Structure formats: structure tokens, C-alpha cells
Predict the 3D structure of the following.
Amino acid sequence: MSSQQKLSRKDITRQTKPILCYAVENLPVKKGGDELYATLRTAVKYGKATLVEKLEIPAKDARSWKVPAGHMWRIVCTHGPQVADMNCWSLSDPKERFYSSKTRQIHATHLTTGDRLWSNMPYLRPLATITEDTIAYGFDDDGAGVHDVIGSRCDPYTHFLMTGEDYNHCCHSNLTRAATHDGLTEMDVHDVLNVFMCTGFTRDTNQYFTKPSPVEVGDYIEFLAETDLLVSASTCPQGDVSMACGGGGEPDVYPLGVEIYKLEDGFLKKKGWSPSDVSKYGGNHGL
């Protein structure tokens, strides 16, 4: 009997180095290639994109906006350190929406420049790509990063469990009000991209933790819409999330800005870009 056969399954598991779950190098390349997306990082700065809409998300509230395919949008820190919970849907079919867990599996627990926001099955395609992240935090000694896709949105149901109080300005409620305004319902609100939020898992207990967001006035995260989108974001009532949810206290909360940009006519097409396509899987699950 070989030494490998003598090992228990637990021993084999503990001795094996981590294996990435997906061969992400086999994913379809970005249309237009990495060179195009590198150019988009400075498109606004060098006048290749024009501001076409600007709005403010009030403190402890949510707003939504539409982004045509090939346009860019930014969420901007305008007044003080503040995080946001963001949802997005296909404008033509809101059953297609951001799929945080698949995005996490393909990219990482925290997103940054170059990462794509993938949609749910059966569509499974990039809804948007992050073209710039001015924070570019990386990961610190505690394993914390920024822009996470591991935590859900704060919600009134969990808040009630912890406090026994009704509270209507959790991100889930804020997003629900915005969704209702767009003809959607609470059931269309989904797990979020936690914009500007600094989070991780504790080393000793593996619990989800937060740190004060490193975002400063002037910082932004920027996206390219890979198809026509409806986007919504809530300014979290926890502000920079330096206090635990349901733990009491009154965080400082600020508005955030949103900017939508139109690229020069033909700019993307001549670089080989076109809107993303829904999955062409046709196996019907073997039925």
C-alpha cells in the first residue's frame, strides 16, 4: 500500500495546495482586448468621453439610472467617506441581473479595475466591466479589501432580529423603494456590489468583518456598460461602516454622486467592441 493510500482524506485535503475552482484563463477575452480597456481608464481625462447625466444619491436613500451599452458610469465620493450597495439589471429584461456569487467565483472576493460584473443564469454574460478604481486598495495585513462581493446588503429583517425595531433605511429597503419606482418589486432586489466598502474574514473565527472605508472625496469607481442597463445604488446608513450593523450608534452618512459618460461616436466599434451576448448554452439540462 502506498503512502498516499495510507493517508486519510482529511490528511490529503490539508496537504493539498489550494486549487482555483475555475480555469478563468479560458474565459472569453474582452471584446476589443485589454488595450481598449486600458484606454478607457483615461477616456474622460483626455476628452474621449462626454458627461451626459449627473445625479446625487441622498444620504440613507437610493437612486437608479439607465446606462446604454457602451456608455460609462461612475459612483463618486463627493462629500465624505461613504459606501454604497449597487444592483444592476438588463434594461430589456430585468430577470437578468447581477450575479455576485458567480462574479466572486470568477474573479475574487473584492473587485477592481478589469473585473467584470456577470449576470445570473441562464444569461451568464458580462453586464459591466470596471474600467477604473481610484482607491486600488489591494489587500491589507488583515486580509481586507475594497468593493466586496461577499457581503449582502443590510436589510430591515436582520435589523429587526437584532434590535426588535422597524427601520426603513437599510440598503435593502432603499433599493426596494428605487426598484418600485422603476416598475420592479422587492423580489428584484439582489445581492450587491459593496462599493467602497472595506471587508474581509477574521483569521481566527472566519467571520465577516468591516473596516472604515478608505474612500476620500474625489475617489470613484468607473464602469463600462456591456449591454443596456438599469443601475441602482443605496447610500448605506452605516456610512463608512466603521460600526457594526445593529450595534447602536449613529454613523456619519453622506450623499454620493453618479456621473454617466458617452464615448466618442465610433470609438468602441473601431476598437472591435460590441455589446455582450447572453450564453449560447443549448443543452436544456439533459431533459
In short: The longest strand covers residues 49-57. Residues 171-181 form the longest helix (11 residues). The chain has six helices and twelve strands. The CA atoms of residues 147 and 195 lie 5 Å apart.
